DNA sequence: GTTGACTCTATAGTGACTATAGACTTTAAA
DNA sequence: TTTAAAGTCTATAGTCACTATAGAGTCAAC
């Protein structure tokens, strides 16, 4: 299978696949005579793993760690749990930050009522302080 | 006042100040004989305006728009309101996305209990599907 | 044999900074 | 007065996870 088919099967772009290879997340595969990458089902699995992680906003660096962990099948998976826990905490923190941000923006929004003129605008006034 | 003092007064880094100038958000100021930038209170105001906007996650491009609007003091400020409204909507959307992400991560987390071994780890198993 | 679809590498761009390198200027102490 | 330290200058590269080109090569069908 060439890169175009892999891209369609996994709903990744071709550039992204090549990027993951360059970043060491996908194994390098053998090439055809014309230097085309040739993939098999193993590549599909690897790529879907990455996609699944990315859909959960797990960074490429974290994915690299997960791959490394996965390749030591006899060790405990405590560090997997730790990674996911850390990730959940970060998401939670970001949600709280954004909630506060929204609160601030709503306060700002209330400073102006429609139809005013720029020089009297409460929003611009507030932002200038 | 030289750039170092402005940086301290506004709690910006020197690089960021120069970056904002390069991006056209801060006026270019006159220089000393030794080519040092010389600022006055006007620069403090401009910089605090930018900082205030940035603390609300308003992009540099949006700040440029706000500056442009502010410089036409007799027009209506409807577009200021529109910009803030748009911004609030985006933040809201992002919060919802992150909440869903957190939900997914928690489901994932439950797939594993501590003390297991990598090859039986429910999290890695789930991510591989 | 030529068109068109596909793939290759290498490079630059995104946003909002941050971090250097290497040179110059100014201020303070010895 | 010399010299060391601190401050500033420009230019350039790095961050993250892609995305988008340019220009060249490969392959299949007509
Ligand atoms: Zn994470
Ligand atoms: Zn207004
Ligand atoms: Zn916005
Ligand atoms: Zn586990």
Outline of the structure:
The first copy, chain A, is an all-alpha fold.
Task: Please tally the β strands of chain A and state the result.
Answer: 0
Overall residue-averaged pLDDT value of chain A: 94
Q: CA-to-CA gap between the ends of chain A?
A: 61 Å
How large is the radius of gyration of chain A? 24 Å
Kindly report the greatest chain-chain contact and the residue count on each side.
A-B, 52 and 52 residues
Question: What do you see in this structure?
Answer:
The structure is a homodimer of 129-residue chains. Chain A is mainly α. Chain A contains six helices and no strands. The radius of gyration of chain A is 24 Å and the shape is elongated. The N and C termini of chain A lie far apart (61 Å). The relative contact order of chain A is 0.08. The model of chain A has no long low-confidence stretch (mean pLDDT 94). The interface between A and B is large, with 52 and 52 residues. One zinc ion binds next to α5 of chain B. The first copy, chain A, binds a DNA duplex (30 and 30 nucleotides) through α2.
